């Protein structure tokens, strides 16, 4: 069958899938003890044990007396119709080169695996576990998941001391990532935000408080062919009054003295091809993918959606409870049973701080959920957990129609010294920059001029 004949058959199937976007997911025979409306406390921990990864039990649900999980219904988080349509239109096109770099990719899920993707492509080229590159292709699916074109957030972040008994600093700032290519939302025109761009994405962050780090900025440019051209990354440090380049080697270092790293942003933001990947199957697990809480900065009277300047104070940041380690979402959060895939990432760089990482992603939306990192000796080192925020719920009508799981909070814990950081951004939204605005924001010559 020619490629044109293939697409004539495939696209009508995709359109049928588009018509079903609002349909509920198929019924599942889940444990009736976790029916929607169930509240799980420390006395009920055995009921959730099968639905939390076993390797994480000691750091999350075991021995945590304040456990408070609210079970809600499993919802439908299929991505935007344009992303589904692109998956069907460009199915079977993406390949991997000898380095493991993605080739011939236009838009959509590169290798159809999520149920909506295999249905939309009529199962013509499903990604299957017997594929020798299965795990690597799954990692590329995560890399090119539907993201609404980018993300914009104002965040607050806590820095806890080793015993988690006090906070020595609360910082706040803004973060934006914009995707320059693979943009299904720009179709049927070009999937590139800027014509003939070499960029995959660019990100910019700026610290607004406290005074000792105010004005610190970071900019990272990721290129589509990162094998041939590594990231360009810069930092502006006010005390030095100059912009300095950050080497690729430093991306796995601590970010602003926290347990977060540039490479670990959004679970994994490193080079996909530069890792060994292994697949550890699917499980039905509990995930916090659509928070209904109004935490920082939404609870601040200063919040005006601009995200500029200092918003609220420490009391607003601490208004919502977290735990354990004051960083993980096991208090007063909504949890739903989801089909989850587990990947193992094994860094290939000899001096990398991790020997391996376990990554959990939601199968349907490929939203990032959890990561457990191990030190060079193989001992658990860092646990990272994200809380999602579905764009179609809540009172922010500016996000409606995007059909994207945004990040409202992320916590990271150093399991060896018990230092933790919690980042909250309950006002995250999809980035809507046009080409002119994107060029203006991601311009390294403007880093100094942004300091007021």
Could you list some keywords that capture this structure?
alpha+beta, 7 helices, 452 residues, single chain, disordered N terminus
Give the N-to-C terminal Cα separation. 61 Å
Number of helical elements: 7
Q: Uncertain regions: pLDDT < 50 for 5+ in a row?
A: 1-9, 11-27
SSE string: HEHEHEEHHEEEEEEEHEEEEEEEH
From the alpha-carbon coordinates, what is the Rg to the nearest angstrom? 21 Å
Structural class: alpha+beta
Please provide the count of β strands: 18
Major sheet size, sense and barrel closure: 16 strands, mixed
| Secondary structure: helix percent | 10-25%
Return the average pLDDT rounded to an integer: 89
Shape: globular
Q: How large is the share of residues in beta strands?
A: 25-35%
